[in-house]
Design goal:
378 residues, alpha/beta, Spore Coat Polysaccharide Biosynthesis Protein SpsA, Chain A, 2 domains, disordered N terminus
């Protein structure tokens, strides 16, 4: 019985080996097909990954001069006033034979956004907004393609510094090819064409004779080698002796650095170069934020070596306007009506006159960079 069972098992094994030998070519082809299929699948997956990376890259928008306007959720009238007035001044900047040039051309046929030179972005915090507010802002973005909603930020005065920090992070991640960033508020009228013109011609040194009567900056001749180059630009209307508010809207409960604010460019508008943007965006997790975003910017940049801090009297950015002068690059604290009036005056004068009637309400000062900040601004 055992012998018969062993013989039967041997016969089955021999039959299986004969079948295996008979179909070995077919098995080989099947295994090869399996590996080829796996290889093709992996290749397709790799292609998919590469395509995804390309799509992500395409999401990055190229613009040389982003203009960041901090705006409120309900300020559509101010945003519309900017779109209809000084935003159009970007058409005065154009490229010819590879050079960026300025020419009065308010009715330019080509949109400046198509040239990747200047683009305006309205920054708004979206956290806590009602469905109606979000719906209106979404519709506004579809119409104009210039609204940036920060999802994790409640838009309020107390969050302005955090809003600026998140905005610079967004710029660092989503924009490419930028040289300088212009920051302003939605109640500022900005000669964006002349700002870009000066940056192209004189930045970052800003030491040209043509603008010497408007600007003051710290000279390196006593402390640095003559051939040392500026690594960045921080340009606006500076204050170095502003007292720290202990109460009210601007109260700084967490301020401990000294008994005055560190020198900073007033927030109605200022300009910072790409290296400063990158530095602040990449190190933002370590920064303290204060009640005022412009004060915070002064603190964030205080330790940076060899950036050119340029005070310019053409920036009318104090808490109250100093009046109107034809040479001004920025006028802060302006209503939509004021903006339409200034724009009409510019158009009718072919860019020569900003003001219907020039006036001086308050005096300006030249910043003295060679004395202590408390004595800077007489």
């Amino acid at each position: 019985m055992k012998t018969h069972l062993a013989h039967l098992m041997f016969s089955k094994r021999l039959s299986w080996l004969n079948s295996l030998n008979k179909y070995k070519n077919m098995i080989f082809v099947g295994v090869a097909a399996f590996y080829l299929g796996c290889s093709a699948t992996l290749s397709i997956m790799q292609m998919d990954c590469q395509c995804t990376a390309t799509k992500i890259q395409k999401m990055t928008e190229r613009v040389e001069y982003p203009v960041i306007v901090l705006s409120g959720p309900n300020n559509e009238d101010k945003r519309d006033a900017i779109r209809a007035t000084w935003a159009k001044l970007a058409n005065n900047i154009f490229v010819e034979n590879g050079e960026t040039l300025f020419k009065w051309n308010c009715n330019g046929t080509k949109s400046i956004s198509e040239l990747n030179i200047i683009k305006i972005y309205f920054i708004i915090g979206a956290a806590g907004l009602t469905d109606v507010q979000l719906s209106k802002l979404t519709a506004e973005q579809k119409r104009h393609n210039d609204v940036v909603l920060i999802d994790n930020l409640e838009d309020s005065y107390k969050n302005l510094a955090q809003k600026m920090l998140l905005t610079l992070t967004w710029v660092n991640e989503k924009l490419s090819g930028y040289k300088y960033l212009v920051k302003c508020d939605d109640d500022s009228f900005v000669r964006i064409d002349l700002i870009v013109k000066d940056l192209e011609a004189f930045g970052p040194d800003m030491s040209a004779l043509e603008i010497s009567k408007y600007v003051t900056f710290k000279s390196f001749q006593h402390t640095q080698p003559n051939n040392k180059k500026h690594r960045g630009l921080y340009w606006g209307y500076f204050d170095g002796r502003a007292r720290v508010y202990q109460s009210g809207k601007w109260q700084e409960q967490d301020w401990f650095l000294c008994d005055t604010y560190l020198p900073y460019a007033l927030g109605g508008a200022y300009v910072i170069s790409s290296g400063i943007i990158d530095y602040v965006a990449l190190n933002g997790q370590y920064y303290s934020t204060y009640r005022s975003e412009d004060v915070s910017m002064g603190v964030w940049t205080a330790a940076l070596d060899n950036i050119n801090r340029v005070h310019d009297i053409r920036f009318d950015t104090e808490w109250k306007s100093r009046g109107c002068d034809a040479h001004m690059l920025v006028r802060h604290k302006q209503t939509p009506k004021d903006m339409y009036e200034m724009y009409d005056t510019l158009v009718h004068s072919q860019g020569k006159s900003l003001c219907k009637n020039e006036s001086t309400v308050r005096k300006f000062y030249h910043y003295n960079w060679d004395v202590l900040p408390s004595k800077c601004c007489k």
